[in-house]
Amino acid sequence: MTARGNTPGEGLGLMDHQEHDPVTIETLLAKVENSRYRGLLHDDQLRRRLVTKMLAESDDPILREMGEQLRDGLATPSQLMSIPEYWEALRPGYEALGSIDLDQVAEQVDATDDD
By C-alpha distance, which of 13, 22, 34 is closest to 112? Predict the structure, then answer.
C-alpha cells in the first residue's frame, strides 16, 4: 500500500495530467513554424514594431519613453541599453526570460491554433 499525499498536489487532481518530455526550444520553434505565428517568427520588422508599440503604450513612464524614442527614430536599441536607467527598467523582464516555461508556451501555441 502506498501513502497518499507524499508529493505536492497528489490526490488533488493536480498530478493527473499525462507526463511528457519537456519541450525544447527547437520543438517550440517547430510548433511556432507550423502555427499562425509563422509570419512573426520570420518578420524582424514586424517583431520590432510590436515591441516598440508595446513599450510606447506601456503604463511605465520609462518604458513608454523608450518606446517613443524607438518609434520616432531618436534612438536605437543599443543606444537605449547604454543608459543605466533604461537598462534597470528592462532588467526584470530580461531576468524573467530565464524562467519561461517552454511547456506552457507550447501548450498556448497549440491552444491558439485550435481557435
Answer: 34
